[in-house]
Design goal:
The protein is an alpha+beta fold. It has a single domain, classed as Alpha-Beta Complex (Peptide Deformylase). About 25% of the residues lie in helices and about 30% in strands. It has 3 helices and 7 strands; from the N terminus they run αβββββββαα. It is globular. The model has no long low-confidence stretch (mean pLDDT about 95). The protein binds zinc ion. The site of zinc ion has 5 residues, from helix 2.
Protein backbone atom coordinates (compact mmCIF):
# COMPACT_ATOMS: atom_id res chain seq x y z
CA UNK A 1 0.00 0.00 0.00
CA UNK A 2 1.33 3.42 -0.94
CA UNK A 3 1.84 5.98 1.78
CA UNK A 4 0.55 9.54 1.91
CA UNK A 5 3.40 12.00 1.41
CA UNK A 6 3.79 14.56 4.17
CA UNK A 7 4.26 18.29 3.57
CA UNK A 8 6.73 19.65 2.43
CA UNK A 9 7.65 16.57 0.36
CA UNK A 10 9.05 17.76 -2.98
CA UNK A 11 6.58 15.72 -5.05
CA UNK A 12 3.78 17.81 -3.48
CA UNK A 13 5.41 20.81 -5.17
CA UNK A 14 5.37 19.27 -8.64
CA UNK A 15 2.75 19.48 -11.37
CA UNK A 16 0.84 16.38 -12.36
CA UNK A 17 0.83 15.20 -15.97
CA UNK A 18 -2.37 14.69 -17.90
CA UNK A 19 -3.60 11.13 -18.24
CA UNK A 20 -4.04 9.74 -21.75
CA UNK A 21 -4.58 6.07 -21.05
CA UNK A 22 -7.03 4.52 -18.63
CA UNK A 23 -6.00 0.87 -18.42
CA UNK A 24 -6.22 -1.83 -15.79
CA UNK A 25 -3.17 -0.54 -13.98
CA UNK A 26 -4.69 2.94 -13.79
CA UNK A 27 -7.98 1.50 -12.49
CA UNK A 28 -5.91 -0.19 -9.79
CA UNK A 29 -4.39 3.16 -8.85
CA UNK A 30 -7.88 4.70 -8.56
CA UNK A 31 -9.04 1.89 -6.26
CA UNK A 32 -5.93 2.21 -4.16
CA UNK A 33 -6.42 5.97 -3.80
CA UNK A 34 -10.03 5.51 -2.72
CA UNK A 35 -8.96 2.92 -0.18
CA UNK A 36 -6.23 5.19 1.22
CA UNK A 37 -8.62 8.16 1.36
CA UNK A 38 -11.37 6.27 3.21
CA UNK A 39 -8.89 4.66 5.58
CA UNK A 40 -7.41 8.05 6.43
CA UNK A 41 -10.93 9.54 6.76
CA UNK A 42 -10.13 12.27 4.25
CA UNK A 43 -12.59 14.05 1.98
CA UNK A 44 -10.23 13.96 -0.96
CA UNK A 45 -6.89 12.76 -2.24
CA UNK A 46 -4.83 13.84 -5.24
CA UNK A 47 -2.46 11.41 -6.97
CA UNK A 48 0.55 13.64 -6.12
CA UNK A 49 -0.10 12.88 -2.47
CA UNK A 50 0.87 9.25 -2.97
CA UNK A 51 3.76 10.09 -5.28
CA UNK A 52 1.99 9.68 -8.64
CA UNK A 53 2.29 12.78 -10.82
CA UNK A 54 -0.96 12.13 -12.67
CA UNK A 55 -4.01 14.34 -13.03
CA UNK A 56 -6.25 12.21 -10.91
CA UNK A 57 -8.21 13.09 -7.79
CA UNK A 58 -10.70 11.13 -5.69
CA UNK A 59 -13.19 12.71 -3.32
CA UNK A 60 -16.16 11.92 -1.14
CA UNK A 61 -17.85 14.70 0.81
CA UNK A 62 -20.83 12.59 1.88
CA UNK A 63 -21.45 12.76 5.66
CA UNK A 64 -19.90 9.64 7.23
CA UNK A 65 -23.24 8.20 8.38
CA UNK A 66 -24.51 8.10 4.78
CA UNK A 67 -23.67 5.66 2.00
CA UNK A 68 -20.30 6.49 0.40
CA UNK A 69 -20.47 8.40 -2.87
CA UNK A 70 -16.98 8.44 -4.38
CA UNK A 71 -16.14 10.97 -7.08
CA UNK A 72 -13.23 10.20 -9.41
CA UNK A 73 -11.94 12.97 -11.66
CA UNK A 74 -9.29 12.58 -14.35
CA UNK A 75 -7.71 15.59 -16.12
CA UNK A 76 -10.10 17.94 -14.29
CA UNK A 77 -10.26 21.57 -15.35
CA UNK A 78 -12.22 24.38 -13.70
CA UNK A 79 -14.07 26.41 -16.32
CA UNK A 80 -15.83 28.90 -14.07
CA UNK A 81 -15.40 30.23 -10.55
CA UNK A 82 -17.94 32.34 -8.74
CA UNK A 83 -18.31 33.99 -5.35
CA UNK A 84 -16.07 33.75 -2.35
CA UNK A 85 -16.15 32.01 0.99
CA UNK A 86 -13.72 31.46 3.84
CA UNK A 87 -13.81 28.00 5.43
CA UNK A 88 -11.69 25.64 7.50
CA UNK A 89 -9.54 23.17 5.60
CA UNK A 90 -7.30 20.32 6.46
CA UNK A 91 -5.18 18.01 4.34
CA UNK A 92 -4.03 14.39 4.63
CA UNK A 93 -0.51 15.62 3.80
CA UNK A 94 -0.67 18.13 6.69
CA UNK A 95 -2.18 15.96 9.43
CA UNK A 96 -3.63 17.49 12.60
CA UNK A 97 -3.63 21.02 11.24
CA UNK A 98 -6.65 23.05 10.14
CA UNK A 99 -6.90 26.66 9.06
CA UNK A 100 -9.29 28.95 7.19
CA UNK A 101 -8.77 29.41 3.46
CA UNK A 102 -10.57 31.71 1.04
CA UNK A 103 -12.06 29.87 -1.95
CA UNK A 104 -14.61 30.44 -4.66
CA UNK A 105 -18.10 29.44 -3.52
CA UNK A 106 -19.24 27.83 -6.77
CA UNK A 107 -17.54 26.36 -9.79
CA UNK A 108 -18.02 24.56 -13.06
CA UNK A 109 -15.71 21.73 -13.90
CA UNK A 110 -14.87 19.64 -16.91
CA UNK A 111 -13.09 16.31 -16.62
CA UNK A 112 -13.35 12.55 -17.13
CA UNK A 113 -14.63 9.80 -14.90
CA UNK A 114 -12.88 6.47 -14.26
CA UNK A 115 -14.24 5.03 -17.50
CA UNK A 116 -12.98 7.95 -19.57
CA UNK A 117 -16.46 9.41 -19.94
CA UNK A 118 -16.64 13.20 -20.00
CA UNK A 119 -17.95 14.76 -16.79
CA UNK A 120 -19.41 18.23 -16.46
CA UNK A 121 -19.99 19.23 -12.90
CA UNK A 122 -21.42 22.21 -11.08
CA UNK A 123 -20.47 22.34 -7.44
CA UNK A 124 -20.82 24.66 -4.51
CA UNK A 125 -20.02 24.80 -0.82
CA UNK A 126 -18.03 21.90 0.58
CA UNK A 127 -17.71 20.00 -2.71
CA UNK A 128 -16.53 23.14 -4.53
CA UNK A 129 -13.98 23.73 -1.75
CA UNK A 130 -12.79 20.14 -1.90
CA UNK A 131 -12.40 20.30 -5.70
CA UNK A 132 -10.35 23.51 -5.51
CA UNK A 133 -8.16 22.01 -2.79
CA UNK A 134 -7.50 18.78 -4.73
CA UNK A 135 -6.90 20.54 -8.06
CA UNK A 136 -4.38 22.78 -6.31
CA UNK A 137 -2.44 19.61 -5.44
CA UNK A 138 -2.29 18.72 -9.14
CA UNK A 139 -0.59 22.07 -9.70
CA UNK A 140 1.88 21.54 -6.87
CA UNK A 141 0.02 23.80 -4.44
CA UNK A 142 -0.91 22.86 -0.88
CA UNK A 143 -3.60 24.65 1.13
CA UNK A 144 -1.02 26.02 3.55
CA UNK A 145 0.39 28.01 0.59
CA UNK A 146 -2.94 29.83 0.50
CA UNK A 147 -3.08 30.90 4.15
CA UNK A 148 -3.09 34.61 4.88
CA UNK A 149 0.37 36.00 5.73
CA UNK A 150 -0.15 35.93 9.51
CA UNK A 151 -1.38 32.32 9.51
CA UNK A 152 1.48 31.35 7.23
CA UNK A 153 4.00 32.59 9.78
CA UNK A 154 2.17 30.74 12.57
CA UNK A 155 2.06 27.57 10.49
CA UNK A 156 5.80 27.69 9.74
CA UNK A 157 6.49 27.94 13.47
CA UNK A 158 4.08 25.23 14.49
CA UNK A 159 4.56 22.64 11.74
CA UNK A 160 8.09 21.44 12.66
CA UNK A 161 6.74 20.66 16.15
CA UNK A 162 3.65 18.73 15.11
CA UNK A 163 4.62 17.11 11.81
CA UNK A 164 4.78 13.33 11.83
CA UNK A 165 8.28 11.92 11.54
CA UNK A 166 9.05 10.27 8.19
CA UNK A 167 9.67 6.55 8.53
ZN1 LIG B 1 -4.76 18.15 0.52
Amino acid sequence: MKKILIYPHEILRQEAQSVNRIDGEFQGLIDQMLEIMYKAKGLGLAANQIGELKQLVVMDVTPSEEKPNPIVLINPRITELEGEEVGEEGCLSVPDYMAPVKRALRLHLLGYDRNGKEVRLEAEGLLARCIQHELDHLNGVCFVDRLNPVRKVLFRKKWPKIRPKEE
